[in-house]
Amino acid sequence: MDIHFLGTGSAYPGSERDNTSICFSNDGYHVLVDVSGNPCRKLKQLQVDLRELDAVVFTHFHIDHIYGLPSLLWGMWLEDRRKPLRILCDKRNERKLQEWLSTMEADQWPIAFAVEIETFDGDEEKELLSGGGMTFSCFKALHSVPTVGLEVRCAGRVLVYSSDSEISARIGEYDHINMLIHEATSARKVAGNHSSLVEIVEKYDVERIGKIVLVHLSDGEPYEEEVEKLGTSKVIIGEDLMTQHM
Ligand SMILES: [Zn+2]
Ligand SMILES: [Zn+2]
User: How many domains does the chain have?
Assistant: First the structure.
């Protein structure tokens, strides 16, 4: 499985990072998790065909995670996409999503592909979709609005993505995680609704995790300094347009 990082920044404007958005690809199946700035350009740079993207999953409806959707759909239309696009969101956000699509008049574009909205209850653990040998499930994250973290299983391996969240006991329950993608809005500061790098390595059993990739990063935070102190190559500071394999 390839994990493409379209953006790795927090909600604060970053000089080097776009807001966090990640595309999971395996065997020609592609799932985009959250949609931040200029998604079409980023997907092209990462060599994911706009006509082939299978689904979009929204972890929550904070602006930094959703605002690229109009541009994504517009680009898909211009690329003459035909395949239906699944968009999955928490049932509490369905009305907002429908209203947004109607505000952008997506139903009036001579659009040749169907947009299929599917909802889930983000307070429940549930399998959301599967394809290309990947299976996506959600669990409740600890954030200020309804938010899900994701578990992605592929070829006997498990990846966990925290989305925006405080340190979560649910994530700590795994016996083994091959790759943990975790938000680290700060390096050291403890702030409600988010996590810091220091908390991640202190509160989870790092021995049980193969690799930790940090996303949702803020400018001016001493991540490098903290990673250096750890003396491990296990913790990776996310960068826009990088691809990881699992
Ligand atoms: Zn965010
Ligand atoms: Zn958020």
Answer: 1
Q: What are phi and psi of 208, to 5 degrees?
A: -90, 0
Nearest ligand atom owner, CA of 62: 2
Rounded distance from Cα 105 to ligand 1 centre (Å): 26
Query: Is residue 236 a contact partner of residue 214, using CB atoms and an 8 Å limit?
Result: yes
CA of residue 53 to ligand 2 center, whole Å: 24
Taking only the tens place, the pLDDT of each residue in 96-139 is 999 999 998 888 887 789 999 999 999 999 999 999 999 999 99
218: Cα within 13 Å, side-chain hemisphere? 16
**110 Cα: distance to centroid of ligand 2 (angstroms):** 33
Ligand number with the minimum distance to the CA of 12: 1
Range of 12's domain?
Answer: 2-243
Q: What is the pLDDT of residues 19-59, one digit of tens each?
A: 999 999 999 999 999 999 999 999 999 999 999 999 999 99
Q: From residue 24, give the alpha-carbon distance in Å to each of 21, 34, 50, 145, 225.
A: 10, 11, 14, 24, 29
111 C-alpha to ligand 2 centroid (Å): 31
Q: So what's the pLDDT on residue 163?
A: 98
> Which ligand minimizes its atom distance to the CA of 144?
2
Where is 33: in which H helix or E strand?
strand 29-33
Q: Please name the residue that has the structure tokens 């498990």.
A: 158
Q: How far is the CA of 20 from the centre of ligand 1 (A)?
A: 7
Q: Which tokens belong to 53?
A: 């993207």
Name the pLDDT band for 93 (thresholds 50, 70, 90): very high
Note if the pTM is more than 0.90.
Answer: yes
Q: Which ligand is nearest to the CA of 216?
A: 1
How much is the average pLDDT of 200-213? 97
The enclosing domain of 66 has a CATH number of: 3.60.15.10
